[in-house]
Amino acid sequence: MKGTIIYVNFSPYENAGKILDYLMENYSTILLFSFNFHRLDVHRNASRLTVYQHGKTIYYTRLYQTPTPPSLAFLLLPVRSVVIFLQLLWHTQKLKKQYGPYDTYFTVNAFTAWCGNILRKLGIVNITIFWVWDYYPPIHKNSIVKFMRWLYWLFDKPASRDTDTVVFLNKRLELLRRRRNLLPKDKRYDSIGIGTDPINKITPKHLNRIQLVFLGVIKKSQGLDLLFDAFEGTTNKHMPKLHIIGGGPDESHYRKRALISPLKVQFHGYIMDDTKVTDIINDCHIGIATYVPDKSNVSYYSDPSKIKRYLSCGLPVITTDVFAFSDEITKSGAGIVIPYQGKQLFEAITKIMKTYPQYQRRALTLAKKYFYKNLYKNLFAKRP
């Protein structure tokens, strides 16, 4: 096992693609800083620092959470960012004698990557790794959101330039920065996507009652409206049931839609227990990931952790052509890529259910291609 790693991420993505599990398996000590951004649930966990040794929790403390009503979430981002940096500095220094030296600082966010480089310059950490997960287009109908995205972009250049190891989630993210001359022309970068944890074998399912599942932060850009639109006015007595796992800023909007929708909808809320999430997904037939194809949608430049989660359970996927990964869905036959139209979604569900076992097998085959233990080896090779 390697030594000590500081891992910084935002809830609920700490174990997206089994990344935290991989760290547990490969580092003797992990300091996980988990910060909240979205209001996921009224009973959600606070921002926290957890220290793991050999896979067991040995230290836990709540981090200071800047009081932020949803209406001021973006306006107060600079204040919240300063608080994050100060807490990283304070706690890493405070715990260094007990858990140091810190070999590696690892994060997926440009601002927290910038923070890591400051900690390295102060001699607190040795090596920094920035796994670039996103790009926030500085365009948005809300002028405050637009300005905050522009501020975030200011951290991206020094984070990408100064971090010891930079790895991109996909080629889109790298090419975007190359077009803007933010990366050295003579330097090569790896692309490593979100990993999967595929089940061992397919379990036959009853097909008389269709169960759909949506996993993730509940916000309109995730495309849940398309699902409600697809079934609006439908009177079929064998109506599918939709399971929604997660919470978020637009949850009340969808709870209102569910009250008048013919769809049977169950809101599970934000579930901390990963096993429970897997159990719910395993009981379903199709994973839904119908992102809104809008130029301001950050999903264009990301990698679909929810889709990888569906595939891991052998669930075929219905998605829109937003992610680069949608090409893999089409080529493999592990699901159906649709335009953002309710009619197309309805037809895709019908088509998958007609030959469901074949879609199941192809979904699991694609999942095995991205097994996380194989993917992440290069991510943590020390190459400053």
TrEMBL record:
It comes from the Bacteria. Pfam families: Glyco_trans_1_4 (PF13692). Gene3D superfamilies: Glycogen Phosphorylase B (3.40.50.2000). This is Glycosyl transferase family 1 domain-containing protein.
